[in-house]
Amino acid sequence: MRAAAGSLEQLIEALRCLPGVGPKSAQRMAYHLLQREPARAAELARALDAALKNIVHCRRCNTFCEQEVCERCASSKRDASQLCVVEMPVDLNMMEQTHAYSGFYYVLMGRLSPLDGIGPKELQLERLFERAADGRVTEVIIATNFTNEGEATAHYLAELFHARGLKVTRIARGLPVGGELEFTDAGTIAQALYERRDY
Amino acid sequence: MRAAAGSLEQLIEALRCLPGVGPKSAQRMAYHLLQREPARAAELARALDAALKNIVHCRRCNTFCEQEVCERCASSKRDASQLCVVEMPVDLNMMEQTHAYSGFYYVLMGRLSPLDGIGPKELQLERLFERAADGRVTEVIIATNFTNEGEATAHYLAELFHARGLKVTRIARGLPVGGELEFTDAGTIAQALYERRDY
Q1: ipTM score here?
Q2: Long-range contacts, stretch A112-118, CB < 8 angstroms, 24+ apart
Q3: Which pTM value belongs to this model?
């Protein structure tokens, strides 16, 4: 299709795969790389090649890693009874930063999004169910985002885990730490009220 | 002390009672009122007088009102078994906007703040305990802010209500509706994890 395009046009087109990069930015990037940073451009090409070759998904938690099983999943210091399901590796990192969780993870690498054609099959959810059925996991903590898609994913997973007889919990909605009612939206206050806890 | 000051100086000084108004703004306001808006300045004086004369605290919920008992507390349509404790009238308004609560309120008109000399006596907390002991309230929902002072107030109230044999709950902390882990602080995620709920 694009056989007639020269190398420059192909590079510009290729740069558009980067998130938020339109035709104009792509053109500017291409000129910049070729004119001013040829060495670093070559480095980028090598890094992309190496990453594509070396980085795989951890066989247990599905996150990016370079071994068959990632360091976190190979650790013997974590609590094998808890499995926390998150959407993306960045969410796993956020959970780790809390220092409040010592169980294992499963990274969906996405969320159910029927409009984008992402269903249970595309997310390979059977891998998650297999992981949770290791006989040691007693609680699945669903930590998908509280967006529409994240909530729908949570609901779908909860139903299927329940059917498998597993205890399923969901991280809480409510006011943020330090939050004041005056500056919080009504939907969040309503949830905080609905999910109120015994003191 | 300020007997020697003229009316203008006294007005400027008086305007500084407004929140966020320093000497310069107060001066600008005074000139503006006297030069350009004398009629509205007179109106303001009257409104202040009338408000100070007519507005009292509701005998039941302690919010501002012009009758002995405010309209909300006089309503027979609300659930008398729940009493929600908030810091300020603005918080009561936020709770009402959720349309998720139909019980009664108690407005502390502040929070415990020992550094500012505000203790249980200054908040007249015995009025709250009296209100909660009407024999119909079975649950006290504490909806003070999640600031340090709001939390300390919640803790203090919870202890005293427990001692009186009342069920005490606290609105939830967690991620806001629509919230994503990636853009949430670690403290809030840790709380959302700690306060996770059965799905």
Answers
A1: 0.70
A2: A112/A149, A112/A152, A112/A153, A112/A156, A113/A149
A3: 0.76
